[in-house]
Every structure is written in structure tokens, then in C-alpha cells.
Amino acid sequence: MITPTKYMDLDLSVVRVSSMLIKLFENNRVMEYSEVLQYLVGKIGEDVKHVFVPSLDFLYLLGMIEYHLQTDSLEFIGKNNT
Predict the structure, then answer these.
(1) Would you say residue 45 has pLDDT above 60?
(2) Which pTM value belongs to this model?
């Protein structure tokens, strides 16, 4: 998903979807999981569901988002300075 091939749709790459998530979170620091997914489905299409969770995982590993189980929401915390 991160390494492109000649058959890959670059609009559905993890890096592209992650960048769209960062832009979305710049305006809304906390959003519900379902809201974020519906926003991406509206922008890209149903196929984004296949790369949505890997994109969230990518941002989480970079220390840019947190998931809150109690509210089923995602919070943008920005770049981790540690």
C-alpha cells in the first residue's frame, strides 16, 4: 500500500489518504470515527474503506493522532516532538 506499483491507484494510497486526514484534522481537532470515514467516502469513493484503517495506523505510528475508545473519536495531536 505504501510502495507503489504500476497498477496502483495513487488516489487510494495510504500516504494520500493520510494527507487528506491531516488536512481534515487541521480544521477539526476531534472527530468521530464514522464522520471521518464518511468524509473520505464522499471525497474519494467507497474504495477508500480498504485503506482507511491502514491510513489511521500510519498516522498513529507517526504520533499524529490518538483514538478515544469512550467516545469513538479521533484526535489530531500534531507532530510528536519526542
Answers:
(1) yes
(2) 0.85
